[in-house]
Prior knowledge:
The chain is an all-beta fold. The protein is built from 2 helices and 47 strands. The strands form 8 sheets. It has a 19-stranded parallel β-sheet that branches. It is globular, with a radius of gyration of 28 Å.
Amino acid sequence: MKHLPLALAVVPALLLSPSSLAGDLFVDVSATTGASDGSSWSNAFQGPLGLKDALAAAAAGDRIFVAQGTYLPSSTGTRTQSFGLKDGVELYGGCVGTEAEPEDRPAIGSAPTILSADLNGNDASGSLNDNSYHVIRGFSVSASAVVDGFVVRGGVANAGGNNNDRGAGILCTNGSSPTIRSCSFEDNRCNFGGGAGYINGASPTFTDCQFIDNLGGSFGGAFDMATASGVRFDRCTFTGNRANRAGALEIFASSGIVVTNCVFRENVATGSGGGGALWLGSGGSAQVVNCTIVGNRGQTTTVGGLLNQGTSVTLRNSILWGNEGSNGATNANNQLVGASAQYCLVQGGVSGTGNVSADPEFVDQAAGDLRVLGSSPAIDAGSNAAVPGTVTLDAAGGQRFQDLLLVADSGAGTAPVVDLGAFELQTELGEEVACTPQPNSTGSPSVLAANGSPFLNDNLVQLDVTGLPTGQFAYFVLSDATGNASVGSGTLCLGPPIVRLYASLLNTGAAGSGSFVVDLTALPQGTVIAAGETWNFQLWHRDQGATSNFSNALGLTWE
């Protein structure tokens, strides 16, 4: 159902060393003037090694702001060099060089800050064997080590020993639990496992991250985790990753793993291991909740979606659709094997409470837009109890738990009931649009949105009215079509089907204006307001001569 309307004293800088400043350091690869001591944007650490220098100078409690550009962990061609994280040090990329707080940054992606393993600048020519083994290393750091707003690119973990054959983008071992947010891991590769990252005995968290076109060798195109615990992926997207087993994510002998609001698309298991999107096995436990697993492939095996071979898996509120086996089949066993699903949409159908198998009705699957339409069977079909208590947003940052009016809840829990998949149908007001012709006759009432936002709560719309004869009864008519029919002395802009919403007498007072509250739950059963539709409201009343009149119309486009 649709939910209608997110003290220190001032001392001259020369008297202070950089480490004694207010905990902020600044890095700008393009800077050519200033002290290059990181004390301000005008004195930012300079050059491709600027971030490396800032990390060396930083202490717990410091924040490092990094301007757009490309940064390297070494200028000597030493492949073991990486960006080493520090406890209590927060890194913020995506800056333009004026920021004082992380929220001052422009939208993530508009000012890319790239952490590159391309030490010799020759990746474009195909020379990759001189890249750093790992772009980022996290050893024994806590969640206070933060990486936010970076592109992590070009790690090549292709040597043996010291984990130099795994975790090309980020290597998390020795109990590390860094906080990674709003980062994109792209074109990293390794021989053993985890092109984007390898997690062993560690507990990192990844939020709002992308993992794109990483190669994982034997295990986990994006991530390989072993004997890990408490790892969390929320609102992450896995696209185009490849490995022999687990095209995107391998969960091996690991416990308490939580994967929520994630999208897995076009990942490929290239070998006999299977699991085009996810492979789980060898004990442990994991939750996969509100994920969209679509269009992944097992190149030489059956399971293109999720394959479980011995982990306790809680699979809930998820969509598995269009995942292919080696012969191109998209049956139930190409979507899911070895895991019990509940409140999921699985192509071909699987047994289990609340499961459905109808077309999820994506907005545009071919273009990668995996939001669902308002008529989708995924709407309000999940289990509220399955959603982890910390989850309040969907994959796009929209609010979870929204209702689509007049669509019966088929899931479990008190309304609003969660949708299936990574995206909740968002139903905020979009924009007002004109309905032509307008206005009608002289003296007819006008309909205006109240204070620019007519929604009082989930079901009630308040519209302001002017020009209505005092004390006259009125009601609204609405439709998603236009007709431009002449009725009485007014013009009905709307086309069939016309829906009438009655209300009590409008107490307009002598001025002939006031507010009118419309209850959208009065819409006929079966009416669906879908995202992207424009609904037009008009007010009907009779004048003193009992002649029908219609106001001008207000069009509202729902997002």
